Amino acid sequence: MGNCCSNASAATAIPPVRPSVSASAAKETPASRRSSEGRRYSTGPLTVKDLDMRTLAPPRANVFTSGSYTFSYAFVSQRGYYPDALHKPNQDAFTCLPTFHEGKSFFGVFDGHGSTGEHCAQFARDKVPELLAQNLKNGMPVSNALTLAHIDANNLIHSASFDDSMSGTTAISILFDGNEIHVSNVGDSRAIIAQEVSSSEGEAPQLVAKPLSIDQTPFRKDERDRVKKTGARIMTVDQLEGYEPIHENWGLTLGDEIDESGDPPRIWHPHGDYPGTAFTRSIGDQVSEELGVFAEPEIVTKSLGAHDRFLVVASDGVFEFLTSQAVVNIVKLYKDPLEASRAVVEEAYNRWLQFEVRTDDITCICIFFDDAPMAAPIMPAVVSREASATSTKVHRNSIIAGREVLLAMEDSLRPVRGLGVDTNKSWRSRQTIIGADAVHISMLPDDDEASRASLPSSPTSDDAPFDLTAHTVAKSEEDKDALWNMVQHNFLFSHLTDDKLNDVIAVMDKETVLAGQVVIRQGDDGDKFYLAEAGKFDVRVQSTETNDGDDHELGPVVHTYSATASTHPTFGELALMYSKPRAASVVATSNGTLWSIRRSAFRSILVRRPLRNVVARLRAVSLLKPLTSAQLHLLAEAMKTVVFEKDAIVCKEGHVHDKWLVVVSGNIADVKNDRVFSTHASVTDFALTGTSSMSPTTLLATETTECLCVTRSAFEAAVGNLEALVATYQTRIARKHELSAAKKATPLRTLLPLGAPIEGISTLDDLIVGPTVFHDASCAFRIVTTKGMDENARTLRSIPKQVACDRRQKQALAAEQDMLLALGENLPLAITPVAAISHTATDLHAFFDRPIVGLLEEFGIFPLAESSVRYYAAQLVLGLQRFHAEGILCRSLDPTNLMVDAHGQLSIVGLRQSKYVGAGRTFTICGNPEYISPEQINGHGQCLASDYWSLGVLLYEMAVGHTPFDGLDELDMYRSIASFSPDTLVFPEHVSTGLRSIIEALLRTKPNERLGWADTIELDEDAGVMNEAFFESVNWAALKANELPAPLEDIAGVKLRDLLASAPASKRTLDLAVPYTREMDWMADF
């Protein structure tokens, strides 16, 4: 197809070689390297040798001709430096094809991103010119040929062997066609041309950077408006997380090529924190396509002229900290395009290390005009009062196509970071994980219910998509075997599959420590686990906190670890579970060797999911829109691959066909209805939706066609009945829309009922604020009464808006409302619904239509009589069944979360710890430590059955007075939970056989062996837990009808009276006196 300039042995006359060369596909020869003395940069954290090994360049510049011009060109591509991923591959790819097609030449740079970005970039590098050559050969006009080449490459990448659902590549290319060039741009890489321009007569001409492409990012209003039409949200990460108000004035002045924040506007799903792309067009990025991110290039055609001096095509690694003019100012100093390319890459590398601790991949192609007709420099345009009709006539060297793009968008360039700042200042970006994990691993649905939250005040970044290859640390087989033996008995690793354990070992990093080195410092945030291979280490604990960081202030030695050939102590296990300040310091007392792994890597390996390509295809099927991400993963696991050869009958009219099919590749024709099903089409929907499996038509494969298939029974075993899923989905959407419309029409301080209207109350002003029942750092629960109806007490939960923003609770609060809507009305007594919501200028208020008098833990009544245990256990079972029927994981069954109302009923008040998981799992560590289930610790993820583990622990505490894990330190407690056996439970004599039996059955370590598992699958109120012998005497109908007195009724009634008499009402105010200083737009969701 063409010749490549990048062959190390190539001279001016270039022999044919492979079509293109990427940064991962060639070796640099010593002759091609500049000497270390000639380098323009400081090597920073890398040595000269390291940089040479990361840099790809030809031995010399090469030459080609186009039209009446002769050009010399060269490229340099340098792999990025990532401290946490030293072996991360270069995700830039490029191609230089001087003899491309019928006298044309083609040059392109492709900047990959995401976990498979290097594969995406290399795929596009090969496919775009290949498809372009085919289109040109078929006589297609150049512009059309270029457009279709990019679009078709994008379509093909979706069926490639790697996953492009959250990965892709930008593409910037120049096609030389005689004396014209055609610049195609997809994304935010860039092409510029240097033109010689005189500012006025008598002054030396200046080289000025002129854009040949405009970055396609949300900085551009036209691109912003385009993707918004698909429902996309445009925000920076700080805006998404509530640190900045919502606005569109990014940068110092919109259009300035300056950006000090390093936090560009990104594209987000309307109902989830993904994909977070900072560009509006790309090849790949299948998930982003529904948000308007597509592969259609913007094309600029320019006629070349004598005033043009050189072209630069580069990835955004160059332009992150350099303006286009700065690049021109560097290149113009050199006569050799190879030296110029090196200088640009080196300067970009320098700038990255001034403002970051890492560098991006950096690729630059410089193309010099070596032989061209001479012409006078262009003079700047002067607006004349007597403008003639010819004043708008284009020059022969002007833009002749795409001019409107460049003119309209000149003020919307993506800002360049780091200009006009103190370069001596230490700059380090706030580390933020973009929410791509919402697609791959989250249990959140993909519809309007997508704002489900996990632990509201502790958003985790540990579940982010993880590139195992990029984080793998090279090890000898001896090291791998040794590590395997070291970790296999540790409670955090012993339950992992062999594949996951191998992955964990692969990313472990070896660290050499010196005597006296502080490995862990008490009070620091812990995010790393250590395994000692050799050396001695003291554990030291301060009795009181001190700000003095000297080692002698670390406290006395409380333990010493010694690593030997047969003993390999570990420390920092809790850091792998969740972020928590270190409880002790660990100091090396000899030289030693440690292996370490960060929580982010460990947690990411635990939650990695297979079959992402299958899930991506299922997500594109409209029939499956009601399914959540978790359900799609379960369905993917149930589906099989089937291939139909050309002319094979897929199903025949009038015959039974019970398999539902999704086309992966190829085509299937509906013979009867003259219709063709292609990629992502669902073919036999009648197998899932109809009452009969009889095929209404004959389907025929028109070519070799690959499909995913599943029987109806397997589908329903995985995710349930499709018609029921659709009905539930439509009901929720309708409820949500109704509530949203009602919110917009509701004035400030007005109570908006979430269910039936509340008699006698319409606004917050109708309430008299009573005493505080409970409060923590984020909210307060208070008794309220109605004016003129003092005996009718209720509860008001108040959350300062400032706190909701600061603690990132906005999404959790919205998710709580969504779950309450899903649960509906007539809830069991164990669930106290939010009856109405309102807000003032400073606070958010939730109104509960029953009086809450305190947390269960505050009553101090354990152990309870067995009849009381039975009553509350039955009550909570009814509550769990309602939660689980809607796919909601409760995560609140412990005395520190359960509340007691004035009638003595236990109640789950508020759902901020709850999460929608459906039939899937969630990996967030959440809840009271003594109630955490084994599957959370073992890395298998929580499912609905995890709530029954919590119920078992609660019943044991109610019956015995403490949990099975009481009195253990945190690490020993988790070890005990991970390896727990119900046979080890110790019961007092008064505990009956029936109560012992149900507790033991609830505390089975494996969820699928646990009592309650069948209930979460079948959701049958007349089977499972309710049929246990312990509940034989329960009158379920009377319990559901609230006809039975609660054991704590008298105590709770006394507490309510005491609360109401506790303080004068005149001192109580509605709002919590926390000023609100942020924007108001997000309140539309409440």
Secondary-structure map:
Layout: H1 48-54, E1 55-56, E2 62-66, E3 69-78, E4 92-101, E5 104-113, H2 117-137, H3 142-157, E6 168-169, E7 171-177, E8 180-186, E9 190-197, E10 206-211, H4 221-228, E11 233-235, H5 237-240, E12 266-268, E13 275-277, E14 283-284, H6 286-289, E15 298-303, E16 308-314, H7 316-319, H8 324-331, H9 337-355, E17 362-371, E18 399-401, H10 403-409, H11 437-440, H12 468-471, H13 477-487, H14 498-507, E19 509-513, E20 518-520, E21 525-526, E22 528-540, E23 557-563, E24 570-571, E25 580-581, E26 585-588, E27 592-598, H15 599-607, H16 612-619, H17 629-638, E28 640-644, E29 649-651, E30 659-665, E31 668-670, E32 675-677, H18 686-689, E33 699-701, E34 705-711, H19 712-719, H20 722-744, E35 752-753, E36 767-775, E37 780-786, E38 789-800, H21 801-806, H22 810-823, E39 831-832, E40 834-839, E41 843-848, E42 852-855, H23 856-859, H24 866-885, E43 888-889, E44 899-901, E45 906-909, E46 915-916, H25 934-937, H26 946-960, H27 970-978, H28 993-1002, H29 1013-1018, H30 1036-1040, H31 1049-1060
Parallel strand pairs: 39-45
Antiparallel strand pairs: 1-3, 2-3, 3-17, 4-5, 5-6, 5-7, 6-14, 7-8, 8-15, 9-10, 9-16, 11-12, 12-13, 15-18, 16-17, 19-27, 20-26, 21-25, 22-23, 22-24, 22-26, 22-27, 28-34, 29-33, 30-34, 31-32, 31-33, 35-40, 36-37, 37-38, 38-41, 40-41, 42-44, 43-46, 44-45
Helix pairs in contact: 2-3, 14-15, 16-17, 17-19, 24-26, 26-28
